[in-house]
Amino acid sequence: MPKKKCCVDKPRCGRCPLRALAEGTLPPGYTVKKRRLVKADKVLGRAA
Question: pLDDT at residue 2 above 60?
């Protein structure tokens, strides 16, 4: 599971949500918005 927020370290740490997004290893139902890990249904504006 990636961290909740990116710490903006260079190079990216192993649990970085941006790195997981780029590698395609994010858990199902999650995405990254403004360097934070968020549920995909909240991004789309739908109620859970």
Answer: yes
Residue 31 lies in a domain: yes
Distance separating alpha carbons of residues 42 and 22, to the nearest angstrom: 20
For the chain, what is the domain count?
A: 1
Q: Quick one: how far is CA 21 from the chain centroid?
A: 6
This prediction has a pTM of: 0.75
Whose tokens are 């999650």? That residue is 30
**Cα separation, 4 vs 18, whole angstroms:** 10
Structural domain for 18, as ranges = 1-41
